[in-house]
Amino acid sequence: MTSADFIAAIKSAAKESAHITGIPASFIIAQAALESGWGGSQLARVAYNLFGIKAGQGWKGNVITLPTRECIAGKWLTVNAEWRKYSGWLEAINDHAKFLILNPRYRLAMTGQRTGDDFARQVALAGYATDPNYFEKITAIIRQHHLDQYDRKD
Asked: What's the angle, vertex CA 97, arms to CA 51 and CA 20, rounded to 5?
């Protein structure tokens, strides 16, 4: 799937979610693109998990176990992890929003961060990913693909 195909496939759901939750659509699309390899990752293809959300103790849905690379104590390691498994991309986007809204560590991101760049900064600072360049990667995707256009009200 090309980047344009991926954006076209999820932009409506991202905009709908943004309207309801306040999470910028540009951030939703960019994070989904980064985390899923533009929908091409095994996790996205097999489990519709666009955001790399792991299945923690509170998760009651389906799971899948797959390897992942994580930066632990400054070193990249491959570890097995349990991931949330969805029935489709819309379910993944809705759960992603719920995950961010209900998790106290992202409270600052949810208070007034209305651009994708600002939201990405707060999510990265809150420790969403172990990658120290996470913020820069998200914002590069937003800028390169002009995703901020999806943050405007129609």
From this structure: 140
